[in-house]
Amino acid sequence: MQELIKVAVDAMGGDHAPSEIVKGAVEAVNSQEQVKVILVGRESAVQAELQKYQYDASRVEVVNATEIIEMAEPPVQAIRMKKDSSIVVAMKMVKNGEAEAFVGAGSTGAVLVGGQVIVGRIKGVERPPLAPLLPTEKGASLLIDCGANVDARPSHLVQFAKMGSIYMEHVMGVKNPRVAIVNIGAEEEKGNALVKETFPLLKECKELNFIGSIEARDIPSGYADVIVCEAFAGNIILKLYEGVGSTLISMVKKGMMTNLRSKTGALLVKPALKETLKRFDTSQYGGAPLLGLKGLVVKTHGSSKAVEVRNSILQCVTFTQQQMNEKIKAGIQVNENQEGNGSHGI
Amino acid sequence: MQELIKVAVDAMGGDHAPSEIVKGAVEAVNSQEQVKVILVGRESAVQAELQKYQYDASRVEVVNATEIIEMAEPPVQAIRMKKDSSIVVAMKMVKNGEAEAFVGAGSTGAVLVGGQVIVGRIKGVERPPLAPLLPTEKGASLLIDCGANVDARPSHLVQFAKMGSIYMEHVMGVKNPRVAIVNIGAEEEKGNALVKETFPLLKECKELNFIGSIEARDIPSGYADVIVCEAFAGNIILKLYEGVGSTLISMVKKGMMTNLRSKTGALLVKPALKETLKRFDTSQYGGAPLLGLKGLVVKTHGSSKAVEVRNSILQCVTFTQQQMNEKIKAGIQVNENQEGNGSHGI
C-alpha cells in the first residue's frame, strides 16, 4: 500500500466554515483513496458536520483548536498571539511533518504570514509567491505573484518565473510552459524600472521558455502559461478578472430578462451558455499555492464552497506526488550557484 | 454668432485612416454647429474621402502634411525628426492657437510625447495624465493615469486626482465625484510604498471627495468616479478590462452557437443582449484626454471607427466650453501655493 498524503485543513476559515469545508474534505477523501484529511478547528462543531456523511474514518482525523483568526485581524499579530487558532495549529502540523500540506479559506494575510513564519521558506527562496490559476480561452494560466509582499525586486521575479514554470510543467502537465512578464507594451525597452531590470535576467535563464512581455489584454486569450508580475500588479489582475467577469455575466443575464422574446430565448440558450461560462469559473482549479515553502500551503477563496475545498485538497496530492518542493529546491539552487546570489531577505 | 471651436484632427493616424477619420470628422461637423474640423494629412487622400460626403464646407479645412508617424517608431525621435508629419503639424496648430484641441488615433507614444513637447504643460502640472473613461454598471469612471510615464511619485498622483475630479465634474457632469486610489485592500495601511505615501496626501485635500482605496474587483461596479493610479497599473486595468470583456463576449457568442436549441435561443436574445453589451463598449465615450496641457489633446483607440472619432471631436467642444484648462490651472495652483511645491520635472 502506498503511503497516505496528509492534508491539514483549516475547518474554521472562510465564509462557509465549517459546513462547506467539512463537506469538501469528505468529498476529497471519497474521490481519492490516497489522501488523508486532518480537519483542524473546534472539535464539536467539526464532528457535528462530519456526522452528516459516509466516509472512510481511517482517513479523516479531527484535531481540536479553540481559537479562530478573523478576517480583519492584523495577520502578523494574529499568528503570533493566537497559538491555538486553527491556522496556527494546522500549519505547525506541516512544519513538524505530521502533514504534507495545508489548505485554508480564511484570512489571506494570516495564511501568507503563517506560511512564511511557521512552515518556513525553502533555502534559497527569497520570497514565497502566491500563484492562482486564471481561467483563459485555452485552459488556465498561472499568475505569479498575487501575494502580500509588494515592491518586489528583479531577483524575486526571476524566482517566481522559475517556480511557476516548474509548477505548470509538473502539476498542470504543460510541456515547456511559455513564461511572460506583464508589461505595458510588447517591446523590450518598455515598462517600469522593475520590468526593465527583470527582462534581461529572464532572457538569460536557459531553463525557461521565456517569450517576452505580455500585455494585460492578452492574458484572457491564454497567450502565456506563466504570467510573472509583482504582487500589486498581480492583485489588480486577479481581482479585475473576477470583477469584470462577474459584472459582465450579470449584465448578460439581466439583458436576457429584458422582454418576453429575450426571456424565451434565454431558456433555450441557458444550458449551452452555462457549460461555456463554467470554463471561466475559477473554483474548478481549487486554491492558489504559496510556492517555495518547506511544505505546501494552499489558499482557497474566502467564499469557497465544497467543490473548491475538494479540488484544493486534491491539488495537494498531485503536488506531493510530483515532489514539487524537491524540484523547486533544485531549480532555485541552480540560480544560486550561477549568480552567486544568496540573499534570503523577506 | 458664437465663435467656432477648432479641432485639429490627425487624418492619417489609426488602423482605419484616412477613411473612418474623415467620416467621423464630417459626422461631428454635421451634428454640432459650433465645431470646425481641421483635417491634417496628405491632402489628396483626405480630399478624396471628403468628396463622398455632404457638409458645411466653411467648417472643414484640410491642411497638408506629407509625413506619417508609424506605430512602431520610437516616439521621441519621431516627433523630433518628422516635422511635416500629421501629428506634429496638427499639434503645432494647437500650440499656436490656430486650434483649441487635437484628436488622434495614431501612435500613443507619439501623441503623449507630442502633447508634452509641442503643446506643452500648464504651469504647475508635473505630469500630464492620460485619462480614459471606463464603462461600468452605473455609467462610466475616469481611470487616471494610463499614460507612458511609469514610476510616478505621490505628488503626481495627487495632481491626477485633482484634474480627474475637475474633469468628471465639469465635462461629465458628475456632482462631487468620488475619488479613490487603486489598492490591494480597503484598509489605509495596505498597499505598496507609492500608495501608502499618497493616501494621507489625498485625505488632506479638502477640495476632493476622497473615499479611500478601491480594489480592482470593485471598479466594474462603478464604486468610484475617479480611479487614481500610476500608469503601469492603469495600463493593466485598461487593457485587462478590454481583454476580459472581449474574451467573455466571444465565449458567450460561441456558447450560443453550440446546438440547434441554443442557436434558436440566440436569435431571440440577440437584440436585448446587444443593447445591454453596448453599455460596456468603450467607443461610446470617444477618446482619452491627456490632461494638464495648454491645449486639449485627445487620444482615441488605434482601431477607432467614425463613431469614436466623432465622439472624440464632440468631447473637445464640451471641454473647451467648460474652460477646463482654466479650471485645471486654478485647481493645480491651489496645490502649489499650499505645498510650496514648484517642481516641474517630466
How would you portray this structure in words?
The structure is a homodimer of 346-residue chains. The first copy, chain A, is built from 11 helices and 11 strands. Chain A has helices spanning 19-31, 43-50, 75-81, 86-95, 108-119, 154-170, 193-204, 231-256, 260-278, 306-321, 324-339, and strands at residues 5-10, 35-41, 60-64, 101-104, 133-135, 140-144, 178-182, 209-214, 226-228, 288-290, 296-299.
Instruction: Work out the largest interface and the residue count of each chain.
Output: A-B, 61 and 61 residues
Largest sheet of chain A: 6 strands, mixed
What coarse outline of chain A follows from CA principal-axis ratios?
globular
State the helix count of chain A: 11
Distance between the termini of chain A: 41 Å
Instruction: Specify the helix fraction band of chain A.
Output: 40-55%
Tally of strands of chain A: 11
Beta-strand level of the residues of chain A, as a percent range? 5-15%
Strand order, largest beta sheet of chain A: 3-2-1-4-11-10
Contiguous runs where pLDDT drops below 50 for at least 5 residues of chain A: 338-346
Described by its quaternary structure, the protein is homodimer
SSE string of chain A, helix = H, strand = E? Answer: EHEHEHHEHEEHEHEEHHEEHH
Rounded mean pLDDT of chain A is: 90
Helix/strand structural class of chain A: alpha/beta
